[in-house]
Write a structure and sequence with these properties.
Number of domains of chain A: 2
Distance between the termini of chain A: 53 Å
Oligomer: heterodimer
Number of strands of chain A: 7
Number of helices of chain A: 10
Structural class of chain B: mainly alpha
Structural class of chain A: alpha+beta
CATH superfamily of the largest domain in chain A: Alpha-helical ferredoxin
Radius of gyration of chain B: 22 Å
CATH topology of chain B: 3 helical TM bundles of succinate and fumarate reductases
CATH architecture of the largest domain in chain A: Orthogonal Bundle
Radius of gyration of chain A: 22 Å
Strand order of the largest sheet of chain A: 2-1-5-3-4
CATH superfamily of chain B: Fumarate reductase/succinate dehydrogenase, transmembrane subunit
Order of helices and strands of chain A: EEHEEHEEEHHHHHHHH
Largest sheet of chain A: 5 strands, mixed
CATH class of the largest domain in chain A: Mainly Alpha
Largest interface: A-B, 44 and 41 residues
């Protein structure tokens, strides 16, 4: 994914890169800005900047600090774990190329943790609500066991072309971070609380919140799957319960920030149509 | 794992009925509130065609039986529901327009801003011209001393012209009408996604253009009636209205009703003390 250096910008290559990072020492603690400076190298991405920042563990004023913490995994924009807010926009840091970022603002790169998830430390956030939303809509195919079930049903080319883009979702959470209807829910673990009690309490409050574009889209993906559609009604029940598809405000930021260019707003409109039909059926099929 | 679809017993009324309330909010915005707004603004725009055209339309509307019942069940109550649910919905989100300045996000934010403007505008407008309640005590001790409840259906244009004197009220109405127009036009577009009418970006773009044209049409209808009322001679209008009133009384198409007329006209012999 890492593109070769932009030749046009080669002439005005800096020797240093300034980075402003919103840090936080732990859950619920106050956030604070910190400036770091690293040596410029051609073809850097934000991950390689962060590697240098952590290795130095020193601010641009020369103050020794604890290394900045961040998450990353695949380094090729398919795992979503390195998602953060870079120069005001939520995206993956692995595919955020420093040369491009310096074209926007040559003075500084600004890094913030995602805004809608609880911060664990610095740029690391807790995305468990995102996965809870996938549980809410049962975003899976209900097949268990290892025995041979024979060939699956044929899927038309048209259906494949509709479903494949939805299957590219990597659960990075960009769509949620940019959504004005998806607001932060942060639950702190109490000192005497067991892990199980904490999870139950956390999930209960997640379940009151908006489910989000990613889960709506996955519900549409699995409702279109020949085996997955067995649970179509349960998914629609989840999509029309509190915090369901009806909470969408149609700002359409989700589709604009999605790094996989998933047609999220089409999925939302499909879910809206399915919910309309389902609600009418529920009234008149009784 | 517990089934997330089962409503937990701890859920509040709003949580249990989240889907129903938001869909009813969407529906009530189209029918009856949005549909009524179109009829209202187009009727207003008929003043461009002259005093008699507009006065004739008002006579027709006021010949409907049980008008207060129609007003409350098809206009005021759905409007109050749409307004209250709308504020609740607007407060459930948090605009991030500063961060993401895209068209869709602007429209999201403006839908909420115009909603708040429309809320203040419509509640003031109905008080200003209609008075909210046509109860004798309310009108005489509260509304009219405050300079409200100005509209007289049987002297439609002249009473409107006297309500619109100066510059503050016309500006207030222009802002209010434009806010309502944006809110309805953009609301039709979002309702089309909410109910699943237009699915793809392509069809949503087409719908967006159609909604913009609709907004231009309704908005110009609203503004043209404002221009018309400011350029109409109230004295001349009153003469036409009173002549039309007498003719209607003579033809038995309306019953005499002083509450629907301006003060100071030649008093008919009132047959009843019917309040509207």
């Amino acid at each position: 994914m890492i593109a070769p250096g932009n030749e046009a910008s080669a002439k005005r290559r800096p020797t240093k890169v300034n980075v402003r990072i919103l840090r936080q020492d732990g859950p619920g603690l106050p956030a604070y800005w910190e400036r770091h400076q690293v040596d410029y190298e051609p073809d850097m991405n934000v991950i390689s900047v962060l590697q240098k920042v952590a290795a130095q563990a020193k601010t641009s004023d020369g103050l020794k600090v604890a290394p900045v913490a961040w998450d990353c995994g695949c380094l090729e924009e398919v795992c979503g774990s390195c998602t953060m807010v870079i120069n005001g926009r939520v995206r993956q840091s692995c595919s955020a190329l420093v040369d491009r970022l310096l074209e926007d603002d040559a003075n500084e790169i600004e890094l913030r943790p995602m805004t809608k998830f609880p911060v664990i430390r610095d740029l690391c956030i807790d995305r468990s609500r995102l996965f809870r939303s996938l549980e809410r809509v049962k975003a899976w195919v209900p097949v268990d066991g290892y025995y041979d079930m024979g060939p699956g049903p044929r899927i038309s080319r048209e259906e494949q072309e509709q479903n494949y883009p939805l299957s590219q979702c990597m659960s990075c959470g960009c769509c949620l971070d940019a959504c004005p209807q998806f607001t932060k829910i942060e639950i702190q673990r109490q000192p005497a609380e067991t892990e199980a009690d904490y999870t139950t309490r956390k999930n209960a409050s997640f379940d009151d919140g908006f489910i989000g574009a990613h889960a709506i889209s996955q519900a549409m993906l699995f409702n279109a799957h020949p085996v997955g559609k067995i649970m179509a009604r349960e998914r629609l029940d989840a999509l029309t319960s509190a915090g369901g598809v009806q909470d969408c405000g149609n700002a359409q930021n989700c589709v604009a920030v999605c790094p996989k260019e998933i047609p999220l707003t089409t999925s939302i409109a499909r879910a809206g149509r399915a919910a309309t039909v389902y609600a009418i059926k529920k009234i008149f099929d009784r | 794992m517990s089934s997330p679809a089962d409503p937990a017993p701890s859920q509040t009324f709003l949580q249990k009925n989240d889907f129903l309330i938001r869909r009813l909010h969407s529906l009530s915005g189209l029918i009856p509130v949005g549909a009524y707004m179109c009829v209202h603004l187009i009727t207003n725009a008929s003043l461009v065609g002259g005093v008699s055209v507009f006065q004739n339309n008002v006579f027709s509307i006021h010949s409907l039986p049980l008008l207060p019942v129609i007003e409350w069940s098809f206009i005021f109550l759905p409007l109050i529901f749409h307004a209250v649910a709308g504020i609740w919905i607007a407060r459930s989100g948090k605009s991030n327009l500063q961060q993401y300045r895209w068209v869709g996000n602007r429209r999201y934010t403006w839908q909420r801003i115009t909603g708040y403007i429309a809320f203040l505008f419509i509640f003031t407008h109905v008080f200003h011209l209609h008075g909210w309640f046509h109860n004798e005590w309310w009108l005489k001790t509260i509304a009219e001393p405050m300079g409200m409840a100005k509209f007289r259906p049987y002297n439609a244009v002249s009473s409107l012209a006297s309500a619109m004197t100066g510059i503050a009220w016309p500006i207030f109405y222009a802002i209010g009408v434009l806010a309502c127009t944006f809110h309805l036009a953009n609301g039709i577009w979002t309702a089309g996604i909410t109910w699943g009418v237009w699915l793809t970006p392509k069809s949503q773009r087409r719908a967006s253009i159609a909604c913009a044209l609709f907004g231009l049409f309704i908005g110009s209808a609203g503004l043209s009636s404002l221009v018309a009322v400011k350029t109409t001679d109230a004295m001349e209008a009153a003469k036409i209205e009173n002549a039309m009133y007498d003719a209607r009384i003579h033809a038995h198409t309306i019953t005499p009703d002083d509450h629907k007329r301006s003060d100071g006209h030649a008093v008919e012999k009132p047959k009843s003390e019917l309040v509207k």
